[in-house]
Amino acid sequence: MTDPGTLVTLALLLPAATFLLLAIAYPLRRAGRAAGIVSVAGAAVALAAALRAWQLQSAEGFTRIAIEWIPQESGPLATVGVLADADSTLMLVLVALVSFLVQLYSLGYLDTEAPASLGRYYVYQSLFAFSMMGLVLAPGFVQLFICWELVGLCSYLLIGYWYERPAAARAAVKAFWITKAGDVGLLVGIVLLWFRAGTFDFLQLYDLARGGQIPLAGLGLVTFCIYLGAMGKSAQFPLHVWLPDAMEGPTPVSALIHAATMVTAGVYLLKRTNWLFALTPDVLVLVGWIGAFTALFAAVLACVQSDIKRVLAYSTVSQLGYMMAAMGAGFAAAGFLHLLTHGIFKALLFLGAGAVIHAVGSNDIYRMGGLRRHMPQTTVVFLVGTLSLAGIPLFGGFFSKEEILGAVWSGGLAVPFWMLVTAAFLTAFYMFRVVFIAFFGAPAAPAPLAHGGHGGPDAHGGGHLHDAPAVMTGPLWLLAALSVGIGVYFTVHHGEPEFTAPGWLTPLAVAVAVAGIALAWLTYSRRVISADLLATIFAPLRRGALAGFWLDDLFEGVYRLALLGLARLVGWVDRYLVDGVVNVFSAWTLAWGDRLRRMQTGLAQDYVYGLAVGLLLLLIWVQWPR
Amino acid sequence: MPASVSLQGYLVLAAVLFAVGLFGVVTRRNTIGILLGIELMLNAVNINLVAFARFNGDAVGMVFTVFTISITVAEVALGLALVILIFRVRRTAIADHLDLLRG
Amino acid sequence: MSLETIAFGGLAVVLVASALAVVLTKNLFHSVLWLALTLTGTAGIFLTLDAEFLAAVQLLLYAGGVVTIVVFAIVVTERLVGDRITQTSRQIFSGLIIAGAVLVGLLTFILRAPLSRPRPPLGGDLTRAIGDAVLTRFVLSFELLGLFFFAALLGALYFARPDD
Asked: For residue A233, what are the contacts with CB-CB under 8 A and spacing of at least 6?
């Protein structure tokens, strides 16, 4: 087993096997915990295979195993298989790792679920793991798109895992709709590209692009359409509205799908087709701008949230904006690096938040307080994650964030650069706001409803203010260690950057982060600055932020308008044109029938009349001049 | 005026009689009046047949006329019998009142 | 101007006049009398066409038999002189139109057809020819005619039965 290709195929097929096994073997699925263990075991072996494959894969080469799927005369139309190169094996490791940790964590987190439901959960998890890996390893656009859609399906299934809750069901549908809007763009882009280049395969397209054989006219439209798909999946403005609502799903799901893997599929897509986007720099500029704007926008929204998961969700949107901005600046490697580091520490943050929610019984940070006394382990790991996110040196996110800032500056996008800097300040601010309110400070008044409170079913009744069981804290510590490890590694081994960053960049980044932490400390811990004063100063902004800047309402209004309008139009056409034609025919038939009926008077003389007329007609016909 | 009447002269005469008979059938109110009109029409037909027979030199036309006259006589007899029967039942011989077949 | 032409012209005038009288007289009994005159005129036309036998048959059956039957029927329905009330007010105009149209149609048909040829000379006795044809060529029809009369007789008897 020394061939990366075989190893990644093994990693890919293991979750598929678990999925099929759990889906078909009903008794196993119904057993709940047993299903979970089977799934976790599969994920563990897949992780081992992925790690080995990554180790073996050299930086420059690739291994491709492809099976012809749709045959055609001049080469197959579509292939499925795996394409293992440096990028895909690394991403595979991320997916396999987070997937494994999340599945392990879920054994503890969802311990109060009914066994049959738990089995269903693991079926979905396995399917997701398989789909995401299929996406990562796709050798061409066809498999990518199929797995793209499958991943969206799993997201829907997992967000709506507690489908009896109306909010969850709505959120799942919303996620599906919004990402579907982007997916249409992706499909259009893929087909348009095929029209121009004649193939779906990545390697062939790469050669064509490098050889300059793809016609440039109208290529901007193609790349923009492909970007639309990324926009939907990676929650760029304005298609970001589904991600905060997706927090209705269980927290491990949020950690896996909406932090580390699915939402990063868009960024990964852009990295994979980097050489194509390089041909259309205008679209890249647009990507950069939208990315930077999304980062700032989401950071503003995160400052006013009181639900801990929503803060993290907006934070994810913001960080995705960072990654896209780097892509847009033309330095895809920087964005990809941030994707990896962010995946680690965001998963850590979500899982930590899950432990807190599990203990407290509520998502509301104002119901938490002084948690560090009761949950010391969770506090430590959460702090590690927050420091990584804020971009403090020695922690995971610092180097990758600085790379992105440098990339955007070098790419010449000045205004996006300053947007990203402001977003960095706000990121530090709002994350430490959460830390100070929830983990430090005075405990909140005990919640009068001790049974699940307002946090919903992913908590079981508060009063359990202690650290989570080992099956949950294990992954937490692992992720925290990884985060610190990555931070230290990059501080020690500076890689050769693709660009030269200005000297003042690193101090600026650190200063901004520290300033954000300081502001949060002053406001929420020392209470030197009044939070209410801040709220009053920024009142209109705050009001807008609380309403999500009315984007949801806009979408709903447009959707309703379009749908209702179309429905009314179609209804009108149906009633008056389609039915109308039929009704007119029937009315005419009745009217003419009535009129013709009067011919039958019952009087013989009138019939003689008829005879005479007939005779006349005969005479005319016979004599008609020819 | 030609030396002898041509075939067309007879045919024209028959046509005129036929038209008059048709007018009578359509216009008369009394059932017996209608029957009289039918008589006129049949007469016209007979003139036609005989004229053609004479001008073709073939007696077949006249044989045909014998037949039609016979049948007409029988038809008139039975028609009038019907009129009398209807009169007995409905006390009227006016055709306008006999509209039971009205649609 | 041969005799034949004069005879024809006179007979034609009588025929048309009496036919018009048949359909226009208000009094039904008078109509019947006018019909008798018409039928007699027709017999005269037959004579100008050298069909003596048919003229005789016409006079016997039509002018004699049919008229008698009609008179009996009128008497039975007791409307002898009571039909002075608007006898023919029924849609005269449309009747005129349709009759006129049929007449025009027929006339155009007749006058356009290539029929002008003189009458051929008489080839033998027509009465004898009729008799021969009836009893040889049309004997089946002749016998069926007898059957037909029988049926008509039965029908008449059935109509005339008393109401039981």
From this structure: A148, A151, A152, A179, A182, A183, A262, A263, A265, A266, A269
